[in-house]
Design a protein that fits this description.
By secondary structure, the chain is mostly helical. The chain has helices at residues 3-8, 25-51, 60-95, 100-115, 118-131, 138-163, 167-175, 180-210, 222-236, 242-270. The protein has one domain (56-270): Orthogonal Bundle (MetI-like fold). The chain contains ten helices and no strands.
């Protein structure tokens, strides 16, 4: 058959090209986000930088004071992440268990913790634990409170990731004689983790920010240190630095969370 006949055949003709729409919801949403960011920079950040009282932040003692609070924040965040991840994975397996009692107990715990504010859980742990004879350093009350809540959220993330793997792989693993535990660890979990990375990192970022809630129990974390800093300068020097301090604290949180987001993107690319 000649090339002319091929070009005339409608089955071999390429579909007509259509231009992508200029205005889409995603583009409009991104444009609105950049517009809001620009307005915040113009009306808040630039005036704060130009007219704010930044002299206290030129002193090394100020940064040393904030560094102490940041160390507490990182300590609480790291241990809460580790505990929440381990407990959350166990809860996810419990909810997927064929044992109805274990499944219902796991589901009850997950739904209860997810329905309560983490702020309230931290305060409850701080008040109740000493009354029943459990005395711990203040950071551990915050760690336990945050872990109780975050482990429930992590459990749902793990459960959704495990259920996203095709059932055919489970059936094939069982047909080969693999035990349920070996199947989950060696076959299901490696695939599920790639899909869970964005959700896990998003929850970890939320956890880092939630460490500021520990100020309710008078824990000297980063946000509490910032509050004490601007109260001190407001009383002694007579020059309030509330907005300046909050800007610095927010910048520190942003850097930590942005680094976590970059790590998440790198893991997604490698996956």
């Amino acid at each position: 058959m000649s090339s002319t006949a091929l070009s005339a055949d409608p089955e071999t003709q390429l579909p007509a090209l259509h231009r992508a729409p200029v205005f889409t919801f995603a583009r409009m949403f991104n444009a609105a986000g950049w517009l809001i960011l620009g307005l915040l920079v113009y009306f808040l950040i630039i005036p704060a930088v130009r007219f704010g009282n930044w002299s206290p932040f030129g002193a090394l003692s100020t940064w040393q004071f904030l560094w102490v609070g940041l160390q507490v924040t990182l300590f609480v965040a790291v241990f809460s992440v580790v505990i929440s991840t381990i407990v959350g994975f166990v809860l996810a397996l419990g909810r997927l268990s064929n044992n109805k009692l274990i499944s219902r107990l796991s589901a009850g715990y997950i739904e209860l913790m997810r329905a309560l504010p983490s702020y309230l859980i931290i305060f409850y742990v701080f008040i109740v634990f000493p009354k029943i004879g459990i005395k711990l350093p203040s950071p551990w009350f915050a760690i336990i409170g945050l872990s109780l809540y975050t482990s429930a959220v992590m459990a749902e993330i793990f459960r959704a990731g495990i259920l996203s793997v095709e059932k055919g792989q489970l059936e094939a693993a069982y047909a080969l004689g693999l035990k349920p535990f070996d199947t989950v660890i060696n076959i299901i979990l490696p695939q599920a983790l790639r899909r869970m990375v964005p959700s896990i990192v998003s929850q970890l970022i939320t956890l880092v920010k939630d460490t500021s809630l520990a100020s309710i129990i008078a824990l000297q974390e980063l946000t509490a240190a910032g509050r004490q800093l601007y109260e001190y300068y407001g009383q002694t020097a007579g020059k309030p630095i509330v907005l300046e301090t909050l800007f610095v604290i927010a910048s520190i949180y942003f850097v930590i969370c942005y680094i976590l987001a970059l790590i998440s993107n790198r893991l997604e690319i490698k996956g």
